[in-house]
Amino acid sequence: MSTTDESDTRIRRPRDVREATAATPPPRPSRRRRKAPVLKRFHTLRTVVRWSTAVHRWVTVVLGLALVAQVSCGCVLLFRPEIYRMNHPELFAATDTRPAVTAAEAIRITRETRPLVQAQATLIDGVFQVRSGRAGPATYIDAGSGRILGTADPNGGFLGFLTNLHACALSCEKFPGYQPWLARTWLTVPVGYWLIALLGAALAWWCVSGLLIWWPGIRNLTTRLKIHLHRGSYRALRDVHDVLGAVTMVFLLFWAVTGAGFLIPAIASAWYAITGTHSVTRTVHSVPGAGPDVSTDSAVAAAKSLVPTGRVVAVMEPGPTPTDTYGIDFNQGTTVGRGIVPLAPTSVAVDRHTATATITRGGNVPLANSLWDKWTYALHFGSVAPWPLRTVWLAIGFAPIALSLTGIYTWLHRRRRLSRPRARTRSHRLACRNRDPGALPVGYSHGMRNTAAAGSAERRPWYADLEDAERRGAHGSAGIGYFDCDCDICHQRHHERSF
Fold first, then answer.
1. Can you name the residues that pair with 185 across neighbouring β-strands?
2. What pTM value is reported for the model?
3. Is the N or C terminus of the chain more exposed, i.e. has fewer CB atoms within 10 Å?
């Protein structure tokens, strides 16, 4: 057969059919379904998230009050130097000149008024603080004139109690509120230190599990960082909880790790192992001898030979043990630390018999050591910033309190909703479905139009909550869990959604 014959055998459509086909628009492609986050894509990860959610909530119930107390004490202690100065302004009335009195002279001036054992002199903003050891009352001497300004206990009173509670869990003997049973050692560490480490672990678990529960995926990240204030109190507080936790998670995790690391040596060892370094902090002992101790001025001169550009900010005499040494602290350049006892970047130990000096902390050390030995303390306590900038630490310190309150409220709200009698809910649900559709309001669901025409027997499906909808194959975020009548139960379900 020829080509012309083949074309003649084609089926020809009527003209009106061809015009109707041309006027019909092509079918729209089906809407591509958004990929679920990776944490919800796999069954194992979903199980981990479910168990993490349960542990996250119960940790809040069990240790939430202790964490709130710990964080509240830390918020007050951020401004401890300023509060102490407000209570004792006469102790910091320094002469506005260069220091004319050395630390050794300040110790001698104090010894003329009262005895000192293992004297320690610390320079704080032009004033020497002289005391016996690291506790007890201190005498304040003007470094410019050598005048005695007064005597007070920097670790006493309410601020001392908060310091003992926050830093030692009431296990420090020379602070108010000391509890002997908390000072008992377990695995060479006091029990109080283990309690603080437990709170640090709980705070770290809050951060890690909260991120695991909240993580929505890269595509939905901007949506989950919004706070919806017009969708009921539950949704608003849940969004506040999520956004606040996501914003402050890094800071809270840093506080948890460093707070426990100051007391548990194993955490510092883990840091050095991860960074591939080792601790350069040394413990030096004096050579036993029967001769007299070298003078304080000689010890300072020997330490000065190792740190020629440093400025002496603290001098500590050796204790009663024959192997104890002098301790000399220097500041080089900017001062990291402020207030009651500043943090010196370089420490030198001097033999009490031979005047041999050895750097025990600071100096030329690797970056990993400098970050842990120097900057963790400064960043944890906010000593790196003046008091106006420390309000940022204060705002972040209130985050665990707000997270605890919003988390407990949303959890109790959800448990109360899920604890309703199922029989009553099911019977009411069936009653709503079996009612006359013509008597029900149409499209009464967040302003959405009902797909079932008035008077028809077709009803849209009912979902108890978002999990029920996802389990039954539904997707989307609007119109889930709508109500079909104007009764109180349906009205409450409509306006107080739990997702």
1. 190
2. 0.69
3. N
Closest CA to 212 of 63, 415, 55, 418: 55
User: Does 343 share its domain with 434?
Assistant: no
**At which residue do the structure tokens 């600071």 appear?**
362
Question: Is 19 contained in some domain?
Answer: no
Domain hosting 325: range is: 96-144+281-364
**Could you tell me the CA-to-CA distances from 350 to 48, 274, 365, 424 in Å, in that order?**
55, 32, 20, 81
130 domain-assigned: yes
pLDDT in tens, the chain (499 residues): 444 444 444 445 455 545 555 555 666 665 555 555 555 567 777 788 888 888 888 888 888 889 889 999 999 999 998 899 999 999 988 887 677 888 889 999 999 998 888 899 988 888 999 998 877 899 999 988 889 999 999 888 899 999 999 999 999 888 999 999 999 988 888 999 999 999 999 999 989 888 888 887 777 788 888 888 888 888 889 899 999 999 999 999 999 999 998 888 888 888 888 888 877 777 788 888 767 888 888 999 999 988 888 888 889 999 888 888 999 988 765 444 444 444 556 889 999 888 889 888 876 777 777 788 778 888 888 887 888 888 999 999 999 889 988 988 888 887 777 665 554 455 555 555 444 444 334 333 333 334 444 444 444 455 555 566 556 555 444 433 433 444 444 545 444 444 3
- Cα(210)–Cα(346) distance, integer angstroms: 39
Domain assignment of residue 187, yes or no: yes
Give SS3 for 171: coil
- For residue 38, being part of any structural domain is answered with no
